[in-house]
Amino acid sequence: MKQLHRNQCSSTSKLSSGIDCLASHVSMGLHAPRHLPLSTQHGFYLHGLHRQQRATLGSDFIYDRLAGPLRDQAYSAQEVDAAVILRPQRLGDVPKRLEAVRAFSVLPEAPALAAANKRIGNILKKALDVDAHVSEILLHEAAEKALFATMQALVPQADAQLNAGDYTGSLQTLAGLRAPVDAFFNDVMVNAEQMDLRLNRHGLLKTLHVAMNRLADLSRLAS
């Protein structure tokens, strides 16, 4: 059986194949395949250690040390951070997430949406305990109505693509939020004096933030 796994992994060259190979070896209690790059063997050891001692180490340990080998695959530090900061439950998902993040990062909408995502995160941190709920009755400004309408149209589509495994398509769908997000921040006072309007706008931003960050933390792409 060990010889079989050596043969199955002998042609490993891509990150996705490498991670699948590592996971397979760990599940069988085998040692790291010697033909793999040292950085990948190191990741194999850490992955095995995480599985054996998950009660004490936690996912931060493995993902913090996985970042180096991922950067060795020519991904930028920002792309790696965006993809792994959410700590995907399956290591095998990481390559697809990275490819989706990279494809998103070269879109013309990406810089503005990444910056907006970072701004939204800061607003929500200061607001504390924001409920991701929106009352359409309290949407008074044209820009917030337009943003909410666009979210209703695009977010379900992006969620469906994500759930189907089309990570790249999901982020590209969310890129369509760029124009209404820009208009919202240009035309709407988020922290309105009227408390119900302020809370509703915070809820709108929280809903947007959740939708935009299901796959990756896009704020990590902000310069």
Description:
By secondary structure, this protein is an all-alpha fold. The protein contains twelve helices and no strands. It has helices at 2-9, 15-28, 38-52, 54-57, 59-72, 77-84, 94-105, 110-127, 142-163, 167-174, 178-187, 195-212. The model is unreliable at 1-13, 22-46 and 49-58 (pLDDT under 50).
- Tell me what portion of residues adopts beta-strand conformation: under 5%
| Strand segment count | 0
Given as residue ranges, the uncertain stretches (5+ residues, pLDDT < 50) are 1-13, 22-46, 49-58
Task: List the secondary-structure elements in sequence, H or E.
Answer: HHHHHHHHHHHH
Mean pLDDT: 78
End-to-end gap: 48 Å
* Class based on secondary structure composition and strand pairing: mainly alpha
Shape: elongated
Tally of individual helices: 12
- Give a short account of the largest sheet: none
Measured as a percent range, the helix fraction is: 55-70%
- The rounded Rg comes to 21 Å
